[in-house]
Design a protein that fits this description.
The chain is an alpha/beta fold. The protein folds into 2 domains: 9-212 and 341-403, 3-Layer(aba) Sandwich (Rossmann fold), CATH 3.40.50; 240-329, formyl-coa transferase, domain 3, CATH 3.30.1540. Helix content is 38%, strand content 13%. It has 17 helices and 12 strands. Helix 1 links the parallel strand 1 and strand 2 (32-37). The longest helix is centred in the middle third of the chain and has 24 residues, at 172-195.
Length: 407
């Protein structure tokens, strides 16, 4: 069936997370996306676990694969002028959209900056997604999403009051920025369709991170309050925490916002004597004695099956949810019903699961295809798209201009 971005051509110079994930949104929905990479300086995710059969290898990482599903791959050693010339031809003669995530100097050094390309291709769209943006005193600072999350203030508000700031799991802004980037590219495509003009999108991960903390920013701007760590506590709810259950590292989150929800929880517990104290009857009273409540609840939940208790609490009108492990997701009935995980046949890893589509178009459904081997599509890209002869391609490979790792 047709897909929403059929015919769109995306050239992905991304690295690790933001650029590759952004480009994948379009590839899953019909765009032809070419990932430019290198075996000399390979994307770090290609050697990041989890690996198929626990064996490290440039084509054996499902971490890399799931961020780069549905794409083609061309390996270029950009230290060679011939490689830069190939990349520039793809930019000027083929691409509609370019994604890149380097510090501001790199694309200029290669002659591939928007300013270099736009005079010839005024309809070209480029999105640059480095840490701190293309301008300003810190624009040359390179880094990963965990650093941008720290700068944006996430670490200061994550953790417990009596301890230092706590890292948010993973490269957090790498997960926030791609959806913003994809939305901006789509808007730019709409603008191009109406005007014939492209544009350069300067998308700073740092600023995306700040924009995802509007309440804390506004509270400081309006009231002068600086948000800090409060563990799992919540001003509008008590109890509000994650409690241990049966099994290894198995937890259940419980949140009580209203007094009737508290009474429902108490009834489900069997109305133990400690719950009858008047100090627990209201939210204000419970918050004063939150540590005491948490101790009692921990004693109760520790002997419970998390999934059974989750269902019982929800049935009683209490907000509760199992803190899912990664392995739980493959058994999750909601994800199963919607067919979220896409199993694809990778040329090295075989049949492996990929994160599936995050949106579904009724008239133009998307489709997930396996990630490419490093440099896998050199013949199709150089021969079919750029019209190099077999002899020219062989010569480029022999010179180390074109790279690949196909095992």
């Amino acid at each position: 069936m047709p897909r929403i971005f059929d015919g769109l051509k995306v050239l992905d110079f991304g690295w690790i997370g933001v650029g590759p994930i952004t480009a994948r949104y379009f590839a899953d929905h019909g765009a032809t996306a070419i990932r430019i990479e290198s075996s000399t300086r390979f994307d770090g995710l290609r050697m990041a676990p989890p690996y198929k059969d626990a064996k490290p290898g440039l084509n054996n990482s499902q971490f890399f694969a799931t961020f780069n599903a549905s794409k083609m791959s061309l390996g270029l050693n950009m230290a060679h002028s011939e490689a830069r010339a190939i990349a520039k031809r793809l930019c000027l003669e083929w691409a509609d959209v370019i994604t890149e995530g380097f510090t501001p100097k790199q694309m200029r050094a290669w002659g591939l900056h928007y300013d270099d390309l736009a005079p010839t291709r005024p309809d070209l769209i480029m999105v640059s997604t480095c840490q701190l943006g293309q301008t300003g005193p810190y624009s040359m600072y390179a880094g990963y999403g965990n650093m941008a999350a720290s700068l944006a203030g996430y670490y200061e508000i994550t953790g417990w009051e009596d301890r230092g700031p706590c890292m948010v799991y993973g490269a957090y802004t790498d997960m926030l920025t791609p959806a913003v980037g994809a939305s901006l590219i789509t808007a730019a495509l709409d603008y191009r369709q109406r005007t014939g003009k492209g544009q350069w999108i300067d998308l700073a991960q740092f600023e995306v991170g700040v924009n995802h903390l509007p309440v804390t920013v506004l509270d400081y701007t309006v009231n002068g309050r600086i948000a800090s760590r409060c563990g799992n506590r919540e001003a509008r709810a008590c109890p509000h925490n994650a409690y241990p259950c049966q099994g290894e590292n198995r937890w259940l989150a419980i949140a009580i916002f209203a007094d009737e929800e508290w009474r429902a929880l108490v009834a489900l517990m069997g109305n133990p004597a400690w719950t009858q104290a008047e100090r627990f009857a209201t939210l204000a009273g419970r918050q004063v004695h939150e540590a005491e409540i948490d101790r009692h609840l921990t004693e109760w939940t520790a002997s419970q099956d998390a999934f059974v208790l989750e269902a019982q609490l929800q049935q009683a009108g209490v907000a509760a949810g199992v803190v899912a492990k990664q392995s739980d997701l493959f058994a999750d009935p909601q994800l199963k019903e919607r067919g979220f995980f896409a199993w694809c046949d990778h040329k090295v890893m075989g049949r492996t699961p990929y994160d599936g589509l995050m949106s579904h178009f009724s008239k133009t459904p998307g489709h997930v295809a396996p990630a490419p081997l490093l440099g896998e599509h050199y013949e199709a890209i150089l021969g079919d798209i750029l019209q190099y002869s077999e002899e020219q391609i062989a010569d480029l490979i022999g010179q180390g201009v074109v790279e690949m790792h196909l095992e």
